[in-house]
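subagent[fold] <- orchestrator: predict structure for attached chain, return tokens only, no commentary.
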Amino acid sequence: QNVNKMFSALSRVTAWRWPLASQVRWMESNAALMGRIRDLLAAQRPKLFDSHVFVGSGQIFHNGFQEQLSAGDTENRFVICALGPSLQDQYKPVELADIVMPRKALAFVRAQLLDLGSLSVAIGEVDSTDATDRWQHGYFIDTTFSIFSREQRDLHLLLEDGVPVVALPSRTVPADTIRHVGVRPLPAGHELFLRTNKHEDIPVVLRAQPFPLSPVGAKSSTSTTNTPTPATTTHTSGAPQQVRDAVAALLRVQGHPDNNDMIDRFLAVQASEWVVRTAGALCAQLRHVGGTATPLLPRVLMAQHNPFAAERDEKWREITDEEDVDE
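subagent[fold] -> orchestrator:
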């Protein structure tokens, strides 16, 4: 129940709130920045007019690793894409901007996009892991839930004849037949997949990594149980040596062992951040429409088997608590 509550809160985090009076004060003190953003968006008006628009931040890490390896703070990196006139149909995102700006500017950006003729503004996340990593996928929760790549809409939760279904490029799947939303490590990266109540696994997206993780004996188990899974997942990361050295140095500072196993566990959690968050958000949305889907994660990404996954979950719990206070 705690895991589902945490993922449910994550599904609401992207609907970021900020008191109006604070917005006004901040914009008044940052007029020059607001002007630059206004000009940037105005130049894209032909592409965003009469189109739904996505605004998504990169992945956010709180473990100090990002500051050592990134050229900037990816929490403040935002990708803006036009999604077309209908979210119910297949769409191909058109990137309008990939910019670094304070998160406090998000409310201003949303207002500007609507003033320029956008049909709606969907807030979400992209899978970039630092300030220079090229995003591959994004997801958003607006009136519904959607996952997309640079080429197409990969998944969309919608109603078909009044019945909730998950629309994929090649088929639709009734929402109430999805038992798990899973994540598994593959040599090329991390795959998000659906597992039906007939034990069919349906791939959704593969989030490729700059340095692939090669899993051995990977076996998923539901993240809602405390029962250990017999199989052990070992990741051999292809990360460059300078990256591994930087991780080892950080682990020593934080009081963790700096052996290869711990380095691989650290990198596995960081590399899978977007996929795990997306799986959790999709589970929450499926349950919201009457489904029973739960997350399915490999051992290496579960808190009881990886201290860095436990740190990730603790940060997400803090987000949950903040959301409960806001509400």
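orchestrator: received. Logging for downstream: DSSP finds ten helices and 16 strands in the chain. The first helix runs from residue 2 to 13.
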